[in-house]
């Protein structure tokens, strides 16, 4: 399995996500770029989750059906595809908002290249997304981790 290179111009891997991209700030989605998508990819899936949330892994962003020939998304934009409802109950991106006083939470951006369309419905949890992708089998994936603390 090959790896997808996933980056953001707003923050480096394992560094702090700027206030602008959080719910404390402007709550705009961060810019993302990617490369290394295998030729036989049918769709890309983008998931951003907070595994450190008190209630368990919390979905901040889930988009399926992203065209495999895409290479990123600008700040405040969503990649073309199907945006799902996140853990806050909103469709699309909602940024970090960990409890005040917690250690920095990790916000893990996953980009998956899949050989077929993934089947998700309703308001899937991060665990349900991972299970669906595991069942199908990924061709490649990439991760980017941002940190945020209040």
If you had to describe this structure to a student in words, what would you say it looks like?
This protein is mainly β. It contains 1 helix and 10 strands; from the N terminus they run βββββββββαβ. It has one helix at residues 126-136; strands at 2-3, 5-7, 15-16, 32-35, 43-50, 58-66, 72-73, 82-83, 105-114, 140-148. The strands form 2 sheets. Strands 1, 3, 5, 6, 8, 9 and 10 form a 7-stranded mixed β-sheet that branches. The protein has a 3-stranded antiparallel β-sheet with strand order 2-4-7, with no helix packed on it. A hairpin with a 7-residue loop joins strand 5 (43-50) and strand 6 (58-66). It is globular, with a radius of gyration of 14 Å. The mean pLDDT is 96.
Please state roughly what percent of the residues sit in beta strands, choosing from under 5%, 5-15%, 15-25%, 25-35%, 35-45% or over 45%: 25-35%
Helix content: under 10%
The residue-averaged pLDDT reads 96
Largest sheet: 7 strands, mixed
- Poorly predicted runs are none
Question: What structural class should be given to the helix and strand makeup?
Answer: mainly beta
Computed CA radius of gyration, to the nearest angstrom: 14 Å
Counting H and I runs of at least 4 residues, what is the number of helices? 1
- The end-to-end distance, rounded to whole angstroms, is 37 Å
- Could you say which overall geometry the principal axes of the C-alpha atoms support? globular
Run of helices and strands: EEEEEEEEEHE
Instruction: Give the tally of β-strands.
Output: 10
């Amino acid at each position: 399995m090959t790896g997808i290179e996933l980056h953001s111009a707003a923050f480096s891997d394992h560094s702090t996500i700027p206030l602008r991209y959080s719910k404390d700030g402007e709550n705009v989605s961060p810019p993302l770029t990617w490369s290394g998508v295998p030729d036989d990819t049918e769709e890309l899936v983008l998931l951003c989750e907070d595994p450190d949330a008190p209630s368990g892994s919390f979905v901040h962003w889930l988009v399926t059906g992203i065209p495999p020939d895409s290479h990123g998304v600008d700040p405040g934009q969503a990649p073309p595809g199907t945006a799902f409802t996140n853990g806050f109950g909103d469709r699309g991106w909602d940024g970090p908002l960990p409890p005040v006083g917690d250690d920095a939470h990790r916000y893990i951006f996953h980009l998956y290249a899949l050989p077929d369309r993934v089947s998700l419905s309703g308001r899937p949890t991060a665990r349900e997304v991972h299970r669906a992708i595991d069942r199908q089998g990924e061709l490649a994936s990439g991760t980017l981790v941002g940190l945020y603390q209040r």
